[in-house]
Amino acid sequence: MDVNSQTFMFDYLEKQIASMSMSSTESSSSGGSSTVKSAEEIKADVMMMQLQCQQEEEELYRMPPKRQECPICLITMQEGQTQYQACCGKSLCGGCMHTMLKKAMKDAACPCNNPKCTAKGNQARSLCPFCRTPVAGSDKQTLKRLRKRVALNDVNAVNMLGLFYAHALGVKKNVPLAMKYWEQAAEQGHVASNAYLGDAYNTRFDNGRGVPLAERDWKTSARYYELAAKGGHIQARHNLAALHMNAGEPKIAKKHFLIAAKLGHDDALNVVKAGYKQGMFTKDEFAEALRAHKDSHDETSSGHRKNVFADDDNTWAVKWKTGLMSVLAEEEEEYEGWG
């Protein structure tokens, strides 16, 4: 049973028990009849919730749908290596963004081939590969575009606003406001926002981008990670596995590590490998994870993506590395091992 379903059932039973106790007291004091549900009705409700919990558990451990393709190169995008374009609301892969900037730099270069020459202004005025709008020249300009997208009910823009406030990109850092945006996007089913909220409540993260440590709770974190994992968020799946592992629930952790490994998560595959050596995973499970992991990487690989970080002088790649282009790496939960 997943954390969300388990919590809901326990809350229901607690309310019914409290209601029965209160009604019994009132009935005995007033001599009136009770309006509390009968034992048979409560039993029927519990059976219905158990069925619902079973269905939700099946959904949680089901392999998620195929990830989105880049609208430019039509290759499946890699998690954490995409950029949201506030001009048109599209998410593009790093390879296409890299190619766009290299072309702009080439077009702006002086014929003397000196990159520092200013004869032609040497300004690489990049255009969005999708809508051909000039890219924003600063984080503040991107913020203006994001707010316009939010006004158009673009849930991806709402999520990005949360990132900008969490990382102080063009605005003063405001974590509570960032979480408010993430919660708003999560209510609309945004997968990454659920993952960020999972990070914010994770008791093992002290990154300054979540609720105060004293208010954090691993079960709250797990609930958000579960929602993100159902939507196909690989890092959230890995973090969820680590949470259960550290909570002393290796059987649940094992299922999530296997799924994350099959989806292409390198660290999850290493966990499965270590677990196989210790007898926690069967030979067939390890072999299946290896094959699926390779297939996942092959599905998202391409020549233009491999070149993204090849040139450290590439402006876009450097900004990507430092997180200034909003391609922000999710936190990675560590676990204490199979023990």
Write the layout of secondary structure elements.
Blueprint: H1 3-30, H2 39-60, E1 82-84, E2 91-93, H3 94-108, H4 139-151, H5 155-166, H6 175-187, H7 191-201, H8 218-230, H9 234-246, H10 250-262, H11 266-277, H12 283-300, H13 303-306, H14 315-322
Antiparallel strand pairs: 1-2
Helix pairs in contact: 1-2, 4-5, 5-6, 6-7, 7-8, 8-9, 9-10, 10-11, 10-12, 11-12
Molecular structure report:
The chain has 339 residues and is mainly alpha-helical. Among the domains are: 44 residues; 68 residues, Herpes Virus-1; 84 residues, no CATH class. It is 58% helix and 2% strand. The protein contains 14 helices and 2 strands; from the N terminus they run ααββαααααααααααα. The protein has a two-stranded antiparallel ribbon. Strand 1 and strand 2 form a beta hairpin. The chain is globular, with a radius of gyration of 25 Å.
List keywords for this structure.
2 strands, 14 helices, two-stranded antiparallel ribbon, 339 residues, mainly alpha, Herpes Virus-1
